[in-house]
Amino acid sequence: MIEGRVIFHVDADAFFASVEQLTDPRLKGKPVVVCGLPLEHGVVTAASYEARPYGVEAGIPVALARKLLPDGYFVPVNIPKYLFFSTRLLSIYLQVTPRVEAYSVDEVFLDLTGEADPWCRAVDLKRQIARETGLTVSVGIGPNKLVPKIASDLDKPDGLTHGFAGTGPTGIRAFTGGTVPGNRAEDCGVPEGIGDRHFRRFGGGASGPIATVVWEERGEAVLGCPGSRRNPCGDAGPVATAEKQRP
Question: Which of 13, 57, 63, 182 ranks highest by number of CB atoms within 10 Å?
């Protein structure tokens, strides 16, 4: 059992596009682009993984997406459909733990502190979701909210990555590249003399912007940071369930 907090971040893979592929068999395996309305003048809301190699991603104009991917399958956004699947996912998460914080329509944090084997629990969760909904999710596991939030994005789609140093089959050694823009060593309480040596080793710099603070302490990798008033990237806050979020 891992001592301390165990937080899952569960992120449905290309959620809007995946739902469209799931509900329309003709779209399975095809480059799907979900568009805001009006269809020709809006922006891309989501893109399937088959569409992304062409440079199509959420936020770009639909007109540009059509130029990049003229043979793509462009479908209008369908919020009621996505909310239906989001509710189905939420019902599964609540079977795992009542400590569920909905971060967005397709992302949640789960507090699994005290779970005997978080890795196996995550594998079981992913299998249950695939079996009952047909969707895949990527799961990050860590001691706070920040670490699993980043971890879940490192092995998409259908990934599982933990952020505990020296444990589990697939762990994170270092985060680099714009994950938390603006963080600097001195902002996150990195011990003096540690930053220069290890930030440069991992591609950052102690005096410039870094991704997420990664250093070594007593020979063990430390992921995330203690946090600060400028950027509380340690995020020791609790998972806010629906009851806690009520006014």
Answer: 13
Per-residue pLDDT of the chain (247 residues; tens, 9 = 90+): 667 889 999 999 999 999 999 999 999 999 999 998 766 778 999 999 999 999 999 999 999 999 999 999 999 999 999 999 999 999 999 999 999 999 999 999 999 999 888 889 999 999 999 999 999 999 998 888 888 888 888 889 999 887 765 544 444 443 333 333 333 434 434 334 333 333 333 333 333 333 333 333 333 333 343 333 333 334 556 676 655 554 4
Among 129, 162, 195, which residue terminates a domain?
Answer: 162
User: Does residue 72 share a domain with residue 135?
Assistant: no
What residues make up the domain containing 225? 173-247
0.70 exceeded by pTM: yes
Q: Which of these, 56, 54, 31, 53, lies nearest to 44 by C-alpha position? A: 56
Catalytic residue, chosen from 20, 50, 101, 107, is 107
Burial label for 54, CB within 10 Å (0-12, 13-18, 19+), is middle
Residue 211 counted as domain residue: yes
Would you call 186 a catalytic residue per the annotation? no
58 exposure class (CB count in 10 Å sphere: 0-12, 13-18, 19+): middle
Can you tell me which residue has the tokens 């410039």? 208
Residue 58 and residue 44 share a domain: yes
